[in-house]
Description:
Blueprint: E1 4-7, H1 22-33, E2 37-41, H2 46-52, E3 61-64, E4 69-71, E5 77-80, H3 85-96, E6 102-107, E7 112-113, H4 122-125, H5 138-143, E8 149-155, H6 158-171, E9 176-182, E10 185-190, H7 195-206, E11 213-217, H8 223-226, E12 231-235, H9 240-244, E13 248-250, H10 253-270
Parallel strand pairs: 1-2, 1-11, 2-3, 11-12, 12-13
Antiparallel strand pairs: 3-4, 4-5, 6-7, 6-8, 8-10, 9-10
Helix pairs in contact: 1-10
Organism: Paenibacillus apii
GO molecular function: magnesium ion binding; phosphatase activity
InterPro entries: Cof, HAD-like_sf, HAD-SF_hydro_IIB, HAD_sf
Amino acid sequence: xxxxxxxxxxxxxxxxxxxxxxxxxxxxxxxxxxxxxxxxxxxxxxxxxxxxxxxxxxxxxxxxxxxxxxxxxxxxxxxxxxxxxxxxxxxxxxxxxxxxxxxxxxxxxxxxxxxxxxxxxxxxxxxxxxxxxxxxxxxxxxxxxxxxxxxxxxxxxxxxxxxxxxxxxxxxxxxxxxxxxxxxxxxxxxxxxxxxxxxxxxxxxxxxxxxxxxxxxxxxxxxxxxxxxxxxxxxxxxxxxxxxxxxxxxxxxxxxxxxxxxxxxxxxxxx
Length: 271
């Protein structure tokens, strides 16, 4: 029996207008009514997840910032992970040497920064639901651990981001994780931090096995979750390589939730 439903946000529960469709919203409500545990697993910060899910305050788990922060239903922080100051500073230097990418530094306290705010950064800032923070000497704050960074995001053309990913993995081998999280975004995380690692933490908290969890996602940062369950759903509009790794391909979160409920009812009918 599936007991926990996990959904990504962007490209999955959120459409391109950063909204949840009425059909998907009603399906999430039905999942709560049917007694399912629910978890949002996203590259977004927890503060953003709270804004989007405020109607269900206190009723869902959250794996935010690709697993850097993990929250219980009562919003208690279960765990957080961040870069060692030396790695964070070196990543900042790397970013400074690649100014043709727009980059943001995200922190465990849900603040985020960019080295040089400009017209080029504004379109990307507008996609984030909270305001960018300022710091007088960002490099020094990262180097001395004043700012605890947990995610670096690089925005640009996908072909160039793939090359950047390879360069980062070579330069920071054994110290980072990296994956394409959108068609114009590369996320860099501390080593062994991922949505899958965060979900594993919650599965242990709830005492669930892989057959009791269903995951819905659309991008490469969701694959670590797909690996933990027999019930993975890739969005139809997702990358072909992501869809190949999923047990099912779905048109919407609502369709996936309908499938999950039907699956459980079929199991109950056999008893």
